[in-house]
Automatic annotation (TrEMBL):
All copies of domain Glycerol-3-phosphate dehydrogenase NAD-dependent C-terminal, residue ranges: 179-315
Record-annotated membrane-spanning stretches: none
Keywords linked to the UniProt accession: Cytoplasm, Lipid biosynthesis, Lipid metabolism, NAD, NADP, Nucleotide-binding, Oxidoreductase, Phospholipid biosynthesis, Phospholipid metabolism
Main localization (coarse): cytoplasm
Name of the coding gene: gpsA
Stated family: Belongs to the NAD-dependent glycerol-3-phosphate dehydrogenase family.
Protein known as: Glycerol-3-phosphate dehydrogenase [NAD(P)+]
Protein's pathway: Membrane lipid metabolism; glycerophospholipid metabolism
Amino acid sequence: MTNDTVVVVGGGAWGTALACVAARAGRRATVLCRDSAVADALSARAENPRYLPGITLADDIGATTDPAVLGAADIVILAIPAQRLRAALPGLAPQIAPGARLINTAKGIELGTGCALSRVIAEICPDHAQAILSGPSFATDVARGKPTAVTLAARGEASALDLCRALSSDSFRAYASADMAGVETGGALKNVYAIAAGVVIGLGFGESAKAALITRAFVELRRLGAAMGGQPETYLGLSGFGDLMLSCSSAQSRNFGYGMALGQGEDVTGRPLAEGVATVRIASRIADESSLSAPILQATKRLIEGEIAPKDAVEALLSRPIKEEF
Ligand SMILES: NC(=O)C1=CN([C@@H]2O[C@H](COP(=O)(O)OP(=O)(O)OC[C@H]3O[C@@H](n4cnc5c(N)ncnc54)[C@H](OP(=O)(O)O)[C@@H]3O)[C@@H](O)[C@H]2O)C=CC1
Ligand SMILES: O=C(CO)COP(=O)(O)O
């Protein structure tokens, strides 16, 4: 398989960082932006002042707003928000080269339908093989070339390994997996628990409480993920435990930041993208329909919907009946 040319759809923080990843791995990388001002800044100054201000990017990254660039791609990386995929893809799909492989990097579950994003992509691009890249990776770290490791899942070990090789470099290491459902659900659900961890810190409940929350969140995440088709061991890896840990422990995470603001009683309108807000709504419906116990997820949903105050949500979790840990 030829992997020379990578087109990244989405000129935001993650799309820009992933174009740097591809360029560092020796690929010809182009970002397909929606906004010509972002494309111009990337091309002329190797900068993305809107989404990654202050970071000088590799100067061999191309940028355009012309979807025709997809016609020359061997690999198309999708880096636009989860809830935008269904609307964005139909305009792009006819332009994508027939043999190109798609790698989705958005983290979420479709709100209106409960569909995994891989299903949304398969419905709109049925003839293209797809993969999922997910794991503990902040765009700012990755764009700066700081060491990062992620999971890359595809149907078939050979395909996953081939894509891992195509994107890995001395600062970015991708591990192959064949468990697309496990990698996808881990990335989507960790955002919900990052909001919950942010709430705990925003309330001033401290690091011990946060560690307890993360540990119990991990139990829930594995339970929900398994019900959505993931394999248990996948959640122990970078795209599961790794990403949960990162996102629940750093204010760099937009989901954690959203939760912290909620915990501090701030107005969250207009905050940066927090994918967990949509995911918690649909995941709570999925949990209810399958009668799965997910108290942290359900409390987070009630809190986000304004049905319960942050402090009461945490107290409700602590006052549940005493039971065995496992
Ligand atoms: N940032 C990170 O550290 C990481 C992010 N991710 C995931 O990557 C995905 C994207 O996140 P991120 O890049 O950070 O988000 P940003 O908010 O930084 O950027 C979103 C980008 O998507 C573009 N976009 C939105 N809607 C459309 C559309 N309909 N068609 C084309 N482009 C569109 C925006 O364009 P415009 O500027 O024109 O609005 C913007 O360039 C999310 O699912 C996130 O969870 C995964 C790992 C790490
Ligand atoms: O997914 C991420 C890190 O792996 C980015 O997290 P946020 O979307 O919460 O910023």
